[in-house]
Amino acid sequence: MSLILDNVTKVVGAETHIHETHLELEKGTMNVLLGPTLAGKTSLMRLMAGLDVPNTGRIIWNSDDVTGMRVQDRRVAMVYQQFINYPSMSVYENIASPLRLMGKSRKEIDDAVHKTADLMQLTPMLQRKPLELSGGQQQRCALARALVKDAGLVLLDEPLANLDYKLREELRAEIPRIFEESGAIFVYATTEPEEALLLGGNTATMWEGRVTQFGATPSVYRSPVDATTARVFSDPPMNFLKIRKAGSQLHFGDGQAALATNSHVDLPDGTYLAGFRPNHLELEKHTTDALEFSTKLMVTEITGSETFIHLDHHGDRWVGLIHGIRDLELGAQLTAYLDPTHVYIFAEDGGLVAPASYASAA
Fold this sequence. Notes:
Layout: E1 2-12, E2 15-26, E3 30-34, H1 41-49, E4 56-61, E5 64-65, E6 76-80, H2 91-101, H3 106-119, H4 135-147, E7 153-157, H5 165-182, E8 185-190, H6 193-199, E9 202-207, E10 210-216, H7 217-222, H8 227-232, E11 239-246, E12 249-253, E13 256-259, E14 270-276, E15 281-282, E16 291-302, E17 306-313, E18 316-323, E19 333-338, E20 344-346, E21 352-354, H9 357-360
Parallel strand pairs: 3-8, 3-9, 6-7, 7-8
Antiparallel strand pairs: 1-2, 1-4, 4-5, 9-10, 11-12, 11-14, 12-13, 14-20, 15-19, 16-17, 16-19, 17-18, 20-21
């Protein structure tokens, strides 16, 4: 069982929603579409489902061209961030509803509902109405109604976005288990890099209607192919700084230089773009060869156990993620430290030329 998007595009009026895209998704895989709002995640899912028809290219399902096939005739299930249940029906009837439309027998329906309810931990709630459930249980009900169809393709469009933190964490932990037991192709859209890492599987990073990279989630995170992918797979986005390679050294400005090591050694001399994630920018010096940058504090955001610091470095805006609550004065001059092994190097056009040393060794 496989789903192939064979060089599909989607154009609406004068706007290109999906640029030419080729993706191959295999049976029993979790596939995350990661990107900001308007990156094209929902548009791509609608093509997969058959809700929209591509302007060019084909949709191949198990070697069959289903490009023009109606969504009703495909083995597809979708769950949205606005969980949709029938309020007048019991949980049992909500889950059973798609099977009744398919003309299944009473026994087939009863067996499938109980099997799916057990998988979703809803068995004690089968006789309740959706409004008698918690938010997480309501979303489980919507998921159960999708899974009960025994769909080969399950599309989850930011399904946890409207839940509170605790419920999101609970369902994030359960979805990989559900996915493993179902054996379907799962496609999960999210704006959150952390969610992609928690779900695992494969990740397709998206930006302005383009898939910038697709592969095993840890690999895409550690080795982004370009600066755009690195921005997408970092929250807050990756910080950047122009640098110069000369001989055996990398010059970062502020009189800071580091010896080129590992993947950085063979770079030709020239100007590049250094990238580093917010969690690698620190206010204390932890390694003897840490780079030191003079910055100005612009904004602080305290999240509880951590603090986001927004810094100005000679016109470059950086964000650091610092452990603990910091009482810092806005406008203060701060020295920020960076371990050079955490630096990615990109060409000036954005393509990755050398991963971070820690990433290449992972």
